[in-house]
């Protein structure tokens, strides 16, 4: 083992795990504004015979209670103890790999939105940063705690341990890439490192600087203009997802219409959530597009979907969770009987409030008031709005997590002092999650896991409060929430095999978000707060957040089927999942199901970007690639 003292404080250890001997030399670069320094390592195999070897670069600090961050992949303990979804969790002193609970973890770098591993202890923290690929193969990111010491590490090439996560509760065996060193072989490895102050939010300027460094090597070339992409997404929603009987947006539709011999109907999900993966939000996007473009059929379809949801409230006064063709209206995706999920209800209500600005309708307004009134009435004294609500009685079945955040935006945008007061109380309660850098509970399907969607909900919430009140505290929370959700956003272009679909099409991942540490695929849901990130930049006088919104919109104007047959689908069919790592499917594949929300959120973002362009009187759209 060789030790290199960081001129900025701390030290880095380098060793080769394998048969030696190896010679190791290193040279430090000049510091950047964040304090980051490049370390250039030269490793030579001096043995007489070929030998496998993994270069491990580590950094250790005192930490009896460490806080970990691998952007998009690991946050603190990562999985709260009460979370029903099984995926990697940190627990001091633990070694229960079958349960995916351990004090030591190693991952391949393409699982991370930025190939970096960070840790904070009692007095400060440290970071190690690399590229996805190295001269020795794919890079690995790792950490472990031993007693009162915490270590972060880079591995060249990667090792995954104690098990490999593949998207299910059943772990796969540990995996490792291998490099066999030849006698006299010399390799140069480049990485970066720095010490961090005690504030966990210190990741924000470091990752922002790192993104700037990666930009020249991560081009994104959209396939379509913003206006063209809007038309494609709208056509997909209307042609494939809209069913006029009874007036729904079907959640998923198969690319292959002949797979079952019944025009694909057996693989189409005959269901609609009121918000989130289907329902009102994406109907509102279709409504806005139809009004702008004069597409009467789109307007009529959107109005029918919104009207169908509003005409069928649960006995407790909120929307239902999900409609099923075979069973009608029912609960949300939760094992808790008769439970409705706060985020899904809140998102449906928020977009219904927005729809009323486009198309005033007394039945819609009555449904919005019913939802807002009963949720405000259930609010706990400390501001918590609850996470699971009984469909019949309205009893709050769970107060855990931050899924009530979306209701903050709905209440704040609804108008009226009573709703605003409830939004303020809730905003104050949920601020603790933002300050803890650990927001969780938004999507129904991953229970209490931290997700990128939690960040979007927080951005929507605190921008809405700032818009209503003008108070700086809400703007600061919106900024912190945006910084956190942007940790899920890929800052580099993952390398795909040349024969994989994503490799063949040259899909660039910069701007895509990791869905969550539990759902390790990239997705487009971050487009839901496109307008808010533009607004945040304007309010702060900082173009950064608008730029991040623009790169996401550029990213998901790739792989768009503009004509039947494109990307093995039909015009407007848009996938939910792009597999940038080995999880659920092999790296380089994409899911051949069109999702209503995928088309809807792209349509929403395009309409928001075009509206921002019109408002600013710009010659070029804000969403240019």
UniProtKB/TrEMBL annotation:
Q: Which domain of life is it from?
A: Bacteria
Q: Which InterPro entries match?
A: 6-hairpin_glycosidase_sf, 6hp_glycosidase-like_sf
Q: What is this protein called?
A: Uncharacterized protein
Its taxonomic path starts at:
Bacteria, Bacillati, Actinomycetota, Actinomycetes, Streptosporangiales
């Amino acid at each position: 083992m060789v030790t290199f003292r960081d001129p900025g404080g701390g030290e880095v250890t380098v060793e080769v795990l394998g048969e030696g001997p190896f010679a190791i030399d290193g040279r430090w670069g000049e510091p950047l504004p964040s304090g980051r320094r490049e370390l250039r390592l030269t490793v030579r195999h001096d043995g007489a015979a070929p030998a496998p070897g993994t270069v491990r670069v580590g950094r250790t600090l005192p930490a009896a209670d460490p806080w970990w961050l691998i952007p998009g992949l690991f946050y603190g303990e990562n999985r709260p103890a009460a979370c029903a979804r099984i995926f990697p969790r940190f627990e001091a002193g633990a070694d229960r790999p079958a349960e995916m609970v351990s004090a030591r973890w190693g991952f391949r770098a393409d699982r991370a939105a930025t190939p970096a591993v960070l840790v904070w202890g009692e007095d400060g923290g440290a970071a190690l940063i690399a590229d996805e690929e190295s001269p020795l193969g794919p890079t690995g990111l790792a950490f472990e705690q031993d007693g009162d010491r915490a270590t972060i590490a880079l591995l060249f090439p990667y090792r995954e341990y104690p098990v490999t996560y593949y998207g299910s509760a059943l772990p796969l065996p540990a995996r490792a890439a291998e490099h066999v060193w030849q006698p006299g072989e010399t390799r140069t490895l480049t990485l970066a490192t720095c010490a961090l102050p005690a504030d966990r939010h210190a990741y924000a300027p470091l990752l922002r600087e790192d993104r700037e460094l990666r930009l020249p090597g991560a081009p994104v070339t959209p396939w379509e203009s913003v206006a063209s992409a809007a038309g494609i997404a709208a056509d997909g929603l209307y042609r494939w997802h809209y069913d006029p009987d009874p007036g729904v947006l079907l959640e998923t539709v198969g690319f292959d219409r002949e797979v079952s011999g019944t025009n694909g109907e057996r693989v189409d999900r005959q269901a609609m959530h009121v918000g989130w993966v289907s329902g009102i939000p994406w109907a509102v996007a279709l409504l806005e597009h139809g009004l702008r473009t004069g597409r009467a059929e789109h307007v009529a379809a959107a109005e029918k979907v919104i009207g169908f949801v509003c005409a069928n409230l649960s006995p407790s006064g909120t929307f239902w969770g999900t409609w099923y063709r075979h069973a009608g209206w029912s609960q949300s995706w939760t094992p808790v009987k008769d439970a409705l999920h706060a985020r899904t209800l809140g998102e449906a209500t928020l977009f219904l409030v927005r729809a009323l600005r486009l198309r005033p309708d007394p039945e819609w307004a009555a449904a919005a008031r019913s939802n807002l009134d009963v949720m405000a009435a259930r609010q706990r004294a400390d501001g918590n709005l609850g996470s699971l609500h009984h469909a019949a009685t309205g009893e709050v079945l769970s107060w855990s997590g931050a899924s009530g955040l979306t209701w903050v935006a709905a209440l704040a945008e609804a108008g009226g002092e009573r709703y605003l007061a409830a939004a303020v109380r809730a905003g104050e309660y949920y601020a603790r999650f933002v300050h803890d850098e650990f927001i969780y509970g938004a999507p129904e399907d991953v229970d209490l896991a931290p997700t990128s969607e939690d960040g979007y909900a927080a951005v929507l919430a605190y921008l809405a409060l700032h818009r209503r009140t003008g108070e700086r505290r809400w703007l600061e929370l919106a900024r912190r929430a945006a910084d956190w959700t942007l940790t899920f956003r890929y800052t580099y272009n993952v390398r795909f095999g040349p024969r994989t679909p994503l490799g063949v099409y040259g899909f660039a991942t910069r701007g895509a978000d990791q869905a969550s540490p539990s759902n390790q695929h990239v997705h487009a849901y971050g487009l839901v707060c496109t307008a808010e990130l533009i607004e945040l930049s304007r309010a702060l006088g900082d173009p950064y957040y608008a730029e991040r919104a623009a790169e996401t919109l550029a990213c998901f104007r790739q792989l768009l089927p503009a004509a039947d047959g494109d990307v093995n689908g039909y015009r407007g069919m848009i996938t939910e999942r792009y597999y940038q790592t080995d999880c659920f499917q092999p790296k380089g594949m994409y899911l051949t199901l069109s999702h209503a929300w995928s088309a809807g959120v792209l349509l929403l973002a395009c309409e928001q970007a075009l509206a921002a362009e019109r408002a600013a009187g710009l010659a070029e759209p804000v969403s240019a690639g």
